[in-house]
Amino acid sequence: MTTLTIEPAREQRAEVDPIPLTRVVSVELRKMFDTRSGFWLLSSIAITGLLTMVATIALAPDADLTYYTFAKAIGFPMTIVLPIIAILAITGEWSQRSGLTTFTLAPRRGRVIWAKAISSIAVGVASMLFALLIGAIGNLIGTAIAGTTLRWDVSVAEAVNIVLGSLLCLLTGTMLGMLIRSSAGALVAYFVYALVLPTLFGILASSQDWFRDLQPWVSLNYAQSALFEGTLTSDQWAHLAVTATMWLVLPAAVGLRLVLRSDVK
Amino acid sequence: MITVDSLTKKYRATTAVDDISFVASAGRVTGFLGPNGAGKSTAMRMMVGLTQPTSGSATISGRRFTDLPNPGVEVGVMLDASAQHAGRSGREILTIAQQMMGLPSHSVTDMLQLVSLTESEADRRVGNYSLGMRQRLGIATALIGDPAVLILDEPANGLDPAGIRWMRDLLRDYADRGGTVLLSSHLLREIEMVVDDIVVIGHGRIVARGAKAELLQATGTLVRARDMHALRHALDTHGLETTAPGDGTIRTTADVHRVGRVALEAGVPLTELRTADGELEDLFLELTANTQRERKAA
Fold first, then answer.
1. How near does any CA of chain A get to the CA of B297, in Å?
2. pLDDT per residue as tens digits for the range B177-197
3. Which residues pair with B184 in a beta bridge?
4. H or E stretch including B281?
5. Which of A31, A251, B268, B281 has the greatest count of CB atoms below 10 A from its CB?
6. Whole-structure pTM over 0.90, yes or no?
7. B175 to chain A: nearest residue by CA?
8. Are A19 and B70 an interchain contact pair (Cβ–Cβ within 8 Å)?
9. Is B176 part of any domain?
10. Are residues B109 and B252 both part of a single domain?
């Protein structure tokens, strides 16, 4: 009789509240930095930011010591580190097999991936604001040392573009993480994406006339680089929209589908 | 309660799980047994939504696992104790589970105590854990939400004898308090003591299922004599079906009284006579004989 009375009490527990998205995001954010590799990746953002600032002060010609120089120099390593962080946030679940626990605690995988993307973007925005801040400090120190005039030659709109450009790099990492679901594979793919493809497109554009006009519509990297160069024309925005759809949104949709359907072993 | 209904998983050429149905009841420990590669893990992954079934369904207290609002507080799952990020500490892994389920933070230290992981062990990275420690951590992760149902894949794997004893007591107590336990194993001995019900699976199909007591009852009597030839002859003349498992004994489906009487009448002194109780392993081998990878060299 005891089992009969205990049984329903245990099985029909009080209303269980669903896991709010904010909780998934905070857990995923924590998971990005609670391992040694995660900690050092985060640290590398600060370290490379500071090193680049020092290097810019030491090496850049005095005439170039403007805010734009600093912001661009410090932003560059971010475009390498941020995608790596975004990739590992996703592929770790498969490469380290922790997904077995993650996706049983939160079986709606789309939500987990969404939370990971939100966390990655949060880290990306924070890192870029940090880069802009370090750049400002570098500008103050650099011009003081060189005795040149202080120039703030980056408008708010341009700063927003730089952040946006970095976030596109980061989201490329998220996309490749979903598509490939293996840390090594996705990292290699990212460098193909970021270095090999643009070079190939560049060679093609310089040797084939018919491709020259096509390049902005085909190469995401080409369209994206405009974001780091100032404000965009409406044509350039169109290039960005088309190439981002082709190289980012569509593969991300395929990757998401794979994530949702694949076996987690 | 776990209800598995016609669960099937087909991969391109193979059928990993072939139309299995069973119920794991509350207050009981159900053993999910089968040789390696029989489809146990695939079936368990389907129960918790990690693998999509080709057809059929599995429900936990009437709901699909993926529909549970906060699964961790309703179903404790451990599918592979080694499937953890090697760079996290045991405490961190438990903390992640605690936070995802929205539990009070003291539950982490409570669980560490429950599974006997010391404070210093908890702070070590899981990459340096022994398999036994990982199993304990996995059990802690499964139990932290105080769920009513447990699904454990090979929980005794890697535990020392004391650890197996500990696990057995823990699961027995859990089921006695009304919980549902489904655990898999490829070693019968390992779970023989703790299970109430058994589901035996081979090559994706269920080959036997029922209460342990019932399954044991069907195994009959085991008898041994110095003069095996005379014994065999006596049993044959009384029309008892016999088999020789090859270990110097004779097996028969007749009960102990009948066999003893036959031997007495025939004047064959017996050296051993008992019900084939505790011989679940023989049953297991017998049931899976034609589905096992290594066929016994006859």
1. 34
2. 999 999 999 887 778 889 999
3. B32
4. helix B280-288
5. A31
6. no
7. A3
8. yes
9. yes
10. no
